[in-house]
Design goal:
The protein is α/β, with parallel strands linked by helices and 329 residues long. It contains 10 helices and 13 strands. 54% of the residues are buried.
């Protein structure tokens, strides 16, 4: 197994009406989502063996999630919970394809520790998780079990905190959970909005912000929407642009960025000390292109790219001369 993803799998109901509120919107597209599920799907689309451990409802939406992910090639280890409905997220679009979420909490909170097997963790090269699964006692125990098993086995830990304020009535507890998720990570991706939530006023001092939150891992990336991404890999730091695309909406773009980043790191056997500056830059150019492509359709799964799609966008974007503005990651 290349990557073991742990956490939420849900259904995103994405509004097709930009600027409409959740009250006034009348047209939605139902798409399988959830950040760890999207990362697993993105990796599968890139040819990686990705396994997803999650809890969904024993209902039609839970079966849709299983069908959609398995069709893409994700190795699903889903628990179908008869007592809780599959989690739903309603996504409202802003005028530029940006989003607001409202969640109907459900089965994703009931991931349990017995779903996390030592064999699964030890069989992976990377364990990937977020902070949402630290929200409730059951899923928190499961996530921490996976992290602790990974640490004891020498398996790399990857984290995208994926801050969703609607899920945290107590913002201080939410901040604590996000910081806890980051503290265990070797590989770390975060959006600039989430980083500014953790370190208000940090501006574009991303290295300083990472120091403030105590990140000490090998790889860090801050996605900057249509402005691309900032990265640090060992001694190498830099920024890459995002290619220009026709943005439909940006759900899952950051997850596609993460999937491509992990795929590239795996291609180099996770040996970041062997990477030169040019290789590192190209790694993140690919990740930014993956994120941009995912913003060209409603929901993540329909637009997650394969290697050929990323290669084509990079050639069309002429990144050798600096590229241009583009979609959110």
């Amino acid at each position: 197994m290349d990557v073991l993803c742990i956490g939420e799998a849900l259904i995103d109901f994405v509004s097709r009406e930009r600027g409409a509120t959740l009250i006034t919107a009348s047209h939605y597209t139902a798409v399988t989502g959830g950040a760890p599920a999207n990362v697993a799907a993105g990796l599968a689309r890139l040819g990686r063996h990705a396994r997803l451990i999650a809890t969904v409802g024993d209902d039609a939406f839970g079966r849709k999630i299983s069908h959609d992910l398995e069709t893409i090639g994700v190795d699903c280890a889903l628990k179908f919970d008869p007592d809780h409905y599959t989690t739903l997220a309603f996504v409202k679009l802003g005028s530029k394809g940006d989003r607001d979420f409202q969640f109907s909490s459900g089965a994703h909170d009931y991931l349990t520790a017995d779903q996390i097997t030592e064999a699964d963790v030890r069989g992976a090269r990377i364990v990937h998780y977020g902070s949402i699964s630290l929200r409730k006692p059951e899923s928190r125990e499961a996530t921490l079990r996976a992290i602790h098993l990974a640490k004891s086995a020498g398996v790399a830990c990857s984290c995208d905190p994926n801050w969703r304020p609607d899920l945290w009535p107590d913002q201080d507890k939410g901040r604590e959970a996000v910081l806890e998720s980051i503290a265990h990570a070797d590989i770390f991706k975060i959006s600039d909005a989430d980083l500014h939530f953790l370190v208000p006023g940090c501006g574009d001092d991303y290295a300083g912000a990472l120091q403030t939150i105590g990140f000490t891992g090998w790889v860090a990336a801050v996605t900057l929407g249509r402005d691309g991404a900032w990265y640090r890999v060992g001694e190498h730091t830099g920024r890459v642009p995002s290619p220009s695309v026709q943005v439909v909406e940006t759900t899952g773009a950051g997850d596609a960025f993460t999937a491509s980043m992990l795929d590239s790191l795996l291609a180099h056997d996770l040996d970041v000390s062997s990477l030169d500056a040019q290789t590192v830059r190209y790694l993140f150019l690919r990740a930014a292109a993956a994120g941009a492509l995912t913003a060209t359709d409603y929901g993540a799964l329909p637009a997650l790219p394969d290697h050929a799609g990323i290669d084509l966008l990079l050639r069309m974007s002429h990144f050798g001369d600096g590229g241009g503005p583009g979609a959110a990651s």
